[in-house]
Amino acid sequence: MISSGKNVLCINLSKQQSEVKSFSDLDPFLGGVGLGAKLLQLYKDDDPVILSVGPLNGYFPFVSKTSVVLQDDDGVEDIYVGGTLSFRIKFSGVDAIVLLGKSKNSCVLNIMDDAVTFESNEINAGTLGLPGKRSVLAFNSNNELFLDDYFKLPQDILEAKMTSKALVGVVVTGTKTFSIKTPDKYNELYKTLLSRISDLSVEKNYSPSCSGCPMGCDRSQIGERAGDLLVHSLVACDYAKRIYGDVGTVFSCLNVLGYDYTHEDIEKLPTLIDTTFKELSS
Amino acid sequence: MGKKTLRVAFPERCVGCELCVMEVQRQLKKVGLDGSLIRILREKSGYTISIDPKVDSMGIEKIKLSCPTLVFSLEEQANDL
C-alpha cells in the first residue's frame, strides 16, 4: 500500500501554530468529502474549515477538484473548487489542510509543503509561494474570493467563513514528487481514462482549465456544491461522474497506485459519509 | 536532417491544464511539479509556458500530443557545420 493513514496539516489560526498529524484510522474515508466530514466531526469545537484532496488527485485526468467542508448557519456544507489547488495540496504531501479557530489580526497563510507562515494582510498573496507550483486563494480589491484570479466557489460560503476567521488569503505551494510503482500499468490506465472525453457532461472550450483536465470548460469557473459522494471523495469533477462514479474504475485506479482498498470498501463509502453527516447534524 | 526541438507555437491557446507537465513527469516515472522541464505560470492575462531546453532529450512528440489545444510545435534545428 502506498501509505497508511491520512496526513493532515492542522493550522491553528488563534495560536498561529501548525503541525502535521497522521491519522492511521481514517483510511476508510478515502479522501475529499469523506475525509473532510470526518475531520469536521473530530474538530467541530474549533470551527474547522477542511480543504482536502483524494488519492487520485495529481495522478489521473479529470480528478481536478478540491473539497471544502465546513459548518455554517445552514449546517454542514460541502463545496468544491477547481483550478490548480488540488495538485498543489497533493504535492505538498498532505491529504487535508484544516483551518482552526480565528486569527486575531487579518492574515495571509503561506503554506509551503507542510510549513506554514502567517503573513500580514498587507502583503500581496500573489507574491508568495513558488511560481508554477502554487495556488493563490485570495480576496481581490472588490472583496471577492478567487482562486488564481479566475476560479470561484459556489455562493459565498467560504468567503463568509474566511472573513469570520480574519483570513484574507491562502497560498499553497507543493514541491514534492512521487514515484510510480508500476509505470506501465499506470500509463495504460491513464491513457484509457484520458480517452473517455465523450463520457464527460461538459463541452470542450478554451477557458482556463483545472489541473489534469483537458476540457477548458466554462462551467468549472464556479465550483460545485454537494453531489456524488464517491466522486467527491476522490476528488473528481462531478462532470466526470460517468467515469469516477464507477466502483470498478475507482478500484483499478487505487489498485494501480498500490492502495489496498477493496470493492466493498468503495461501495460502503457513501453510507459511511452519510452516517457521518447525520451524526454531525444531530 | 536536424534534431527536433519542442517550441511554444501558440501560447495564447494554453488553458493551464498542465497535461504537458504530467506527460513530462510521467516519462520520468514520477508525478509532481518539482523538476518538471515544462512549467505553466499563471499570469493576469493567461498563461506563460516555460520550457527547459533539456526537454528535447525526451519524447517530445508525445509531449506535443499531450496538449489538448495544440500549443506546441516541433521544429527542426539546423545542423551545425
Topology:
The complex is a heterodimer of chains A (282) and B (81).
Chain A: E1 6-12, E2 17-23, H1 32-42, E3 49-52, E4 66-72, E5 75-81, H2 85-90, E6 96-100, E7 107-112, E8 115-120, E9 134-139, E10 145-147, H3 157-164, E11 167-173, E12 177-179, H4 183-194, E13 224-225, H5 229-234, H6 241-244, H7 247-256, H8 263-281
Parallel strand pairs in A: 1-6, 7-11
Antiparallel strand pairs in A: 1-2, 3-4, 3-6, 4-5, 5-13, 7-8, 9-10, 9-11
Chain B: E1 4-8, H1 19-27, E2 30-32, E3 38-43, E4 46-51, H2 60-66, E5 72-76
Antiparallel strand pairs in B: 1-5, 3-4
Helix pairs in contact in B: 1-2
What is the C-alpha radius of gyration of chain B, as a whole number of Å? 13 Å
- Written as H for each helix and E for each strand, in order along the chain, the element string of chain A is EEHEEEHEEEEEHEEHEHHHH
Distance between the termini of chain A: 35 Å
Please mark out the parts of chain B with pLDDT under 50 across 5 or more consecutive residues, or reply none. Answer: none
Largest interface: A-B, 35 and 26 residues
Helical stretch tally of chain B: 2
Number of strands of chain B: 5
Distance from N terminus to C terminus of chain B (CA atoms, Å) equals 13 Å
Low-confidence stretches of chain A: none
Describe the global form of chain A. globular
* CATH topology call of chain A: Aldehyde Ferredoxin Oxidoreductase,  A, domain 1
For the biggest sheet of chain B, the summary is:
2 strands, antiparallel
Sheet-strand content of chain B, in percent, reads: 25-35%
In terms of DSSP E residues, the strand content of chain A is 15-25%
**Main sheet: strands, sense, barrel of chain A:** 7 strands, mixed
- Estimated helix fraction of chain B: 10-25%
| Structural domains of chain A: how many | 1
Organism (chain B): candidate division WWE3 bacterium GW2011_GWA1_46_21
Protein name (chain B): 4Fe-4S ferredoxin-type domain-containing protein
Pfam families (chain A): AFOR_N
GO molecular function (chain A): iron-sulfur cluster binding; oxidoreductase activity, acting on the aldehyde or oxo group of donors, iron-sulfur protein as acceptor
